[in-house]
Write a structure and sequence with these properties.
single chain; two-stranded antiparallel sheet; 5-stranded parallel beta sheet; 6 helices; globular; alpha/beta
């Protein structure tokens, strides 16, 4: 399974983004059309990404921000209508996070490390993100920029 990072979802729902169409097409293809194969989902959305998405897409500093209620509906649609699996932190998250933070050199990566910890604990093998460099050093994770 792969996870989708916040930036991909934001681009896919920000009509003024120059990457809107390619991100929207990508999300449509991998989430809405892939579903399950051999009893396993192909793509999921981490809970942290859901929270970050709502925070970012509702900021008045981005072009074409949306209301909080619209952002909630988008996440609800992914979870309930499309039934994309939501990837939740496991009880082991804190220990995994602390272990990964021991090999991290900057506080600026704390949220990326938290996401990586969730993915590691859930045995998610890859992440689709535009910020590939932010996840270098996590050998357990295949990181791909699908918009390149």
């Amino acid at each position: 399974m792969f996870a989708i990072d916040t930036n991909i979802l934001v681009y896919a729902h920000n009509l003024d983004s120059p990457r809107y169409q390619e991100a929207a097409d990508f999300v449509e293809r991998v989430i809405r059309q892939s579903g399950e194969r051999n009893g396993h989902h192909i793509v999921g959305i981490p809970l942290q990404v859901c929270v970050e998405f709502v925070n970012v897409i509702t900021r008045k500093t981005i072009e074409h921000s949306i209301s909080l209620s619209e952002a909630v509906e988008i996440i609800r649609d992914y979870a309930e209508v499309v039934q994309a699996p939501i990837i939740f932190p496991k009880p082991t998250q804190l220990q995994t996070l602390l272990g990964l933070l021991e090999i991290t050199t900057t506080r600026k990566k704390v949220f990326d490390v938290a996401l990586a910890a969730t993915l590691k604990d859930n045995r998610v093998e890859g992440l689709y993100t535009v910020n590939v460099d932010d996840f270098k050093g996590f050998d357990f994770l295949q990181v791909i920029n699908p918009l390149d």
